[in-house]
Amino acid sequence: MKAGEKLDMLVGLGNGFNPEKSGDKPLLIGGGVGIPPLYNLCKELLKMGKTPTVILGFNKKEEIFYEDAFKQLGAKVIVTTVDGSYGVKGFVTDAMDIEYSYFFTCGPMPMFKAIEKKAITSGQYSFEERMGCGFGACMGCSCKTKYGNKRICKDGPVLYREEIVW
Ligand code: FES
Question: Ligand 1 in contact with 131 (CB < 6 A)?
């Protein structure tokens, strides 16, 4: 698009990550398109005086993005690649054997399920779901939680580890 062109869009929907009570050493785990949503969270955590570590997962070296952006913020960054062409060989979970006080994650469901098996603290997951209306009216994105059904578009996309039914 060109500067000055107009977009028709709905923004600011749903909740976001809650950085409170994440301890001194939060861990941010992003896979693919789930990485950008962690950027502002990382900024926020640094502003709060915390020491975040960021794990970024990719398939191969050519796909890597935002590594420098997170480093420039002042976060410790670990990159994983499935084919081992850069950083730690394997999945994000292969880099999780470090000390952390809490975790935040955004990425694909298989990554979430692997993190759920490996994680040793509380945390928050930012979900993706097929959506109809996008603002809470159609129930199309509804999912089961321990506290009843929740709409990913309005009550989410961030859910707490403790409430998720896998
Ligand atoms: S997409 Fe309609 S309620 Fe979420």
Answer: yes
Q: Is the CB of 88 under 6 A from ligand 1?
A: no
pTM of the model: 0.92
CATH label, 26-126, candidates 3.40.50.80, 3.10.129.10, 3.40.1790.10, 3.40.50.10540: 3.40.50.80
Q: Specify which residues 57 forms β-bridges with.
A: 31, 80
* R_g of the chain, CA atoms, integer Å: 16
How far away, in angstroms, is 18 Cα from ligand 1 center?
22
What is the mean pLDDT, run by run of 10 residues, along the chain of 166 residues? Answer: 92 92 96 94 97 97 97 97 97 97 96 97 94 92 95 96 96
